Amino acid sequence: GISLGKMSELLCARAAVVFGLDDRGTLKKDAIADLVIIDPEQNFSVCPEKFYSKAHYSPFSGLQLTGRVVCTIVNGVPLYEAGKLLETDNQTLKGAELFNAETGVNTPPA
Which positions ≥6 away from 33 have C-beta within 8 Å? Predict the structure, then answer.
């Protein structure tokens, strides 16, 4: 019930504003390339045991949903594609390293 444009605005642009990430949240020249590419037609079952995160639970566990993430790019580096985490060098910053919620420190990429 929500357009992709509105979803992008809320989840990307507005989230960047809320967290004070001036160089993120939009596709524009000199912005940092953080992208999530989805296939809006692909169906999948939510399986928290397969999450690539510390949280292995979801209120949506077992539900059939439409619109699957097929690729995630952080700082211009692909980190997830076709259901697998990709190998990266140790210099690649990931989300938890970019913003430490405990200290409130926003670490810019090197």
Answer: 73, 75, 76
d(CA 9, CA 26) in angstroms, rounded, equals: 9
Of 69, 65, 59, 58, nearest in space to 44 by CA: 65
One-character DSSP codes across 27-53: --TTS---EEEEEEEEEEE--GGG-SS
Is residue 78 within 8 A of residue 96, CB to CB? The reply is no
AA letter at 78: P
CA–CA dist 98, 109 (Å, integer)? 8
In 10 A of CB 74, how many CB atoms? Answer: 21
Spans of the chain, pLDDT less than 70:
88-110
